[in-house]
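Q: Entry one of two.
A:
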Amino acid sequence: MLIWKLHWIFVYFIVWSLSVFVAPVAYSQYSDIDQNIHTHCSKKWTKRGQLNQLMYNYCAKLQRNGLADLYELRSKYRDLEWIKQAEKEIAKKWTKRGVTNYLMVHFGLNLAIESFLDISYGLKKGEYESSKITRCFNQWSRPYQQWQMIKFCLDN
C-alpha cells in the first residue's frame, strides 16, 4: 500500500513538474485537470452505481501519462506552426460533454506529428508526384492540416 501511495506521489510530481517546466510552451487549453480525469474515469468504470476502483486507478494513470506525454510533444515540437491548431481540433474531437480524454489527444497529436515527419521525408526524397501532393493537401487541409489523412492520401 505504501509503494502504491509513493507511486502516485511520484506520478503527481512528474505531471506537476512537466506542467511547470513546459509552462512557457504550454498554452492553457485544459482546465481543472484532476476533476477532468476523475470524471472521465468514473464514468468509464462505474457500472450500476459501483466503481471498479482498480480500473479507475489504471484509467487515471493512463490519463496522467497521456497528459505528461502531450506536454512533452508540445515542448519537443513547439516550432511547428500548425501544432497548436491541430491539438485544439484533436482535443475538440476527444472532448465529450466538457470532459477530455488526454490519452487520445496525445495519441492523435503524436500520429499527426509522425505523419508530418514522414511526409517531410518523402518530399525531400521525391517520393510523391506533384499533382498528387496538390490534390491531397487541398483535400485534407481544412479546417486544419490533417497530416495522417494527407499521408494516407499520398501513399494510396
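Q: Entry two of two.
A:
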Amino acid sequence: MQPEPTPFESKNNLHFMSGEAQPLRPVSIEQRFEIWLDGKRLVVSEPREPPQAQRLVVPPAVVMGIKSWRHACRLAWKLRHPRITQRTLAELVPGMYASHVSDYFSVHERRREMPAKLVGLTESVIGNTVMSQWLAQQSRLTVLEELQISRRAA
C-alpha cells in the first residue's frame, strides 16, 4: 500500500490530491516574494500576468533599506523572474562574462562589482529594476527632477 500524499504537498510545482498530479493555478493577481537579506525580512509583490511585459518595481522603503551597490545587486538577483541561472544570465547579456557573474552577486565585499554598463540589460533579463532604483535613490533625484534637468539641457 502506497502512502497517501498530503492534500497540498508541493513537488515540481504540482500539488497532489487523491494521487493525481495537477498544476498549481494562481489564486490571486499578485505574487508575493518573501526574501531575507542580511537578517531582515523583505516582502515584495508583483503582478502575475503578464510576466514578460512588466518589470518588478520594489517599494521605496525597501530601496532605502539597501546599504550598498552589492546589496542592490544581490536583492535584484534574489527577485529575478524567470528563475534563470547565472550561466544563462551571462549568455543573455552581451558583454557579461560567465566567470564574473558569481562575483557580481556574491556576499563577499572583496569580489568584483557589476559594471554600470551591464545594468540595463541585466534588469531586462532578470525582470526587476532594483539596481536602477538604488542608483536613483543614491543620486536623490526623482523621475520628475530627472525630466526637468533633461529638458533644461536640451
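A: Comment on entry two: The chain is about 40% helix and 15% strand. Residues 30-153 form one domain.
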